[in-house]
Amino acid sequence: MVTDCEGRGITVMHAFLKKEDRISMEHCLKLSPQQNIFVATSCFVVHKDIAEIGAIETVFPDTLVNLCSVHIHQAVRRFLQKEFLSDSVETVMDIFMSQVYIESEKEFHSYIVSGSARFVPQQ
User: Fold this and answer.
1) Boundaries of each ZSWIM1/3 RNaseH-like domain copy (predicted)?
2) Fewer CB within 10 Å, N side or C side of the chain?
3) How many domains does the structure of the chain reveal?
4) CA–CA distance, 113 with 123 (Å, rounded to integer)
């Protein structure tokens, strides 16, 4: 996705591949710079497809690859609903999701030190 002048995300590329393996995805990604599709790309947002992540890391080694926050949210919620009491699930989800958007180790450390991260074991 790219962000348009109004701040909305727009999908940049769809690809229909005969095989969704790493080599096929790498080939597809290598074609895109020739068409200037990924000029100045700073981040890819993907589902949890290991082949897709590997292909992106090979073709764009200096670009961040993030998992889709909607899918992270769903997976974590399912896990928490099995493992925690229902009254604490929302609190733990809020804490977890606030960490999903942290972009650096420094920011994460500041988050921990500030006391925002309740439930983190003290050492």
Assistant:
1) 1-63
2) C
3) 2
4) 12
